[in-house]
Amino acid sequence: MAKEPQLNPGEVKYKLLLHQEGDGQPAWFLAAKSDNLKLLKELWALTKKEGNPEEIKYNLFLAQNEYGETALHVAAEGIVEVLEKLWAYFQRRPTKRRQVNELLLATDKHVYTDWNRAAEKGSLEALETLCRYTNKAEINPMNCCWPKMR
Fold it and tell me: Which end is more exposed in the chain, N or C (fewer Cβ atoms within 10 Å of the end residue's Cβ)?
């Protein structure tokens, strides 16, 4: 009979949350991209148990895949409920203004922000949602739409 491999909690956390597939996307990105709210909730519950706040901010929210996209970029292309859930999770952890700016003004390798992604998909609801976030963070929306002009 084969012996079952034993994983410690740190290894499980790494494998489930932080390990990136061949294209640099951890499970968090894939859940956001597939509009899977249930999986996002499950992954978040696990991070609350296992992760420290800084690790969560950088590895789940501010990390970029090989295309330079953050989880918010990916979510801006899908259903608004995923975008809202990611933002709510981001706000639940202690957040520095610099981190909020980093997330909302992040650009991918094409210099697109999450606003550009939402506009490209034609999602007025996502754009309105992002507008609320930038207004709350006191960021000039012009910086979100035309990052090259910053």
Answer: N
